[in-house]
């Protein structure tokens, strides 16, 4: 197997191509079982449920994971930001909706900044412990504001046009929120993979100490990345609210695990220094196709969660198994060369 992989071109060894193969396999399996329901047009319609809002959160999470950190408060940040937007708008009797959106984004950025300050100031604590605490804090503030009530009655363009509107592209009805997400991806890709600031994030994630001694201001990078992560969580909450039409303090519950799973499935490493915007997009497509297909075939949330969990375990094991095979092959070659000598 190692000889076969060594003969492949370098571009075929990339993780993204494994995701492409999995996407094609998933589409083939479910389209053969549900030919009338599992179609491209219906999958595009489901992207508003499985892809867009968690996709924005996963983009922010990707940058945090590249640094070698983690933030499990993103869903609570989205909930608090959406709560602030809903309460400040107050069903049309409060501030203008555009100002409420701006306040929502500021709330998300502030939540992310608080996380960044705590992570950089208390480096002896794991980011998971810190963000677990802020997760409870942000969700608790949302509960204090709303209690068990919900808040809604947003403008029609937000709840209908953005949340459920679509535009015709090449004869397909593409959700407007999906277009918004896809429009952000190229800018995010260029910034993260092609600019000096993006390369500094990868460098800091690969070796934080070496980057610090090289003159990279790692503390500022962490602050900026966590602030960006909070902002992207607020954007995810914005699109989620446009789809649900109302806000409760429980909104986006569990989305933090989905965002982490998508980023890791797309090629990010929890130890830092690795990640891909293209891989994240492919992971979102794979998860959307898999979730939609499983719901069509089984219509059981337990089966859905079980299958996704098994897939993620398999995805995490594959790089470790291939790395172990390469290591054993290298050791075998060294032994053979020593015996010949």
Distance between the termini: 26 Å
Mean pLDDT: 86
N to C succession of SSEs:
HHHHHHHEHEEHHHHEHHH
> Which blocks of ≥5 consecutive residues have pLDDT under 50?
none
Roughly what fraction of the amino acids lie in strands?
Answer: under 5%
Please report the first level of CATH classification, the CATH class.
Answer: Mainly Alpha
Instruction: Assign the CATH topology.
Output: ABC transporter involved in vitamin B12 uptake, BtuC
How many structural units, i.e. domains? 1
Q: Helical region count?
A: 15
Please outline the major beta sheet.
2 strands, antiparallel
Overall geometric form: globular
Q: Count of DSSP E strands?
A: 4
- Give, in spatial order, the strands making up the sheet with the most strands: 1-4
Query: What is the alpha-carbon Rg in Å?
Result: 22 Å
SS-derived structural category: mainly alpha
CATH architecture: Orthogonal Bundle
Helix content: over 70%
Task: List strands and helices in order, with pairings.
Blueprint: H1 2-7, H2 15-33, H3 40-50, H4 52-66, H5 74-89, H6 97-121, H7 127-146, E1 151-152, H8 156-164, E2 166-169, E3 172-175, H9 176-194, H10 196-206, H11 208-213, H12 218-244, E4 246-247, H13 255-265, H14 277-297, H15 301-340
Antiparallel strand pairs: 1-4, 2-3
Helix pairs in contact: 2-14, 3-14, 4-9, 4-12, 4-13, 4-14, 5-6, 5-7, 5-12, 6-7, 6-12, 8-12, 9-10, 13-14, 14-15
């Amino acid at each position: 197997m190692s000889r076969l992989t060594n003969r492949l071109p370098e571009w075929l060894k990339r993780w993204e191509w494994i995701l492409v193969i999995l996407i094609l396999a998933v589409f083939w399996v479910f389209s053969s079982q549900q030919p009338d329901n599992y179609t491209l047009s219906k999958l595009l319609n489901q992207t508003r449920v499985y892809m867009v809002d968690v996709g924005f959160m996963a983009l922010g999470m990707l940058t945090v994971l590249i640094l070698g950190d983690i933030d499990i408060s993103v869903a609570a940040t989205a909930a608090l930001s959406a709560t602030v937007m809903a309460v400040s708008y107050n069903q049309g009797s409060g501030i203008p909706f555009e100002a409420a959106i701006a306040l929502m984004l500021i709330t998300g950025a502030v939540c992310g900044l608080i996380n960044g300050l705590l992570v950089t100031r208390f480096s002896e604590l794991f980011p998971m412990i810190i963000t677990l605490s802020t997760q409870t804090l942000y969700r608790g503030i949302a509960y204090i504001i709303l209690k068990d009530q919900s808040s809604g009655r947003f403008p029609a363009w937000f709840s209908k046009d953005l949340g459920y509107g679509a535009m015709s592209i090449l004869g397909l009805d593409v959700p407007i929120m999906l277009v918004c997400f896809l429009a952000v991806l190229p800018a995010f890709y260029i910034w993260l993979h092609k600019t000096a600031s993006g390369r500094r994030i990868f460098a800091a994630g690969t070796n934080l100490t070496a980057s610090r001694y090289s003159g990279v201001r790692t503390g500022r990078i962490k602050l900026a990345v966590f602030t960006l992560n909070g902002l992207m969580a607020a954007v995810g909450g914005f699109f989620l609210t446009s789809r649900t039409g109302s806000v409760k303090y429980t909104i986006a519950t569990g989305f933090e695990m989905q965002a982490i799973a998508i980023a890791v499935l797309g090629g990010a490493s929890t130890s830092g220094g690795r990640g891909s915007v293209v891989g994240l997009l492919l992971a979102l497509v794979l998860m959307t196709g898999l979730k939609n297909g499983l719901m069509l075939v089984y219509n059981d949330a337990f089966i859905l969660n079980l299958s996704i969990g098994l897939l993620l375990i398999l995805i995490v094991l594959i790089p470790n198994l291939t790395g172990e095979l390469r290591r054993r092959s290298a050791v075998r070659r060294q032994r053979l060369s020593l015996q010949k000598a």
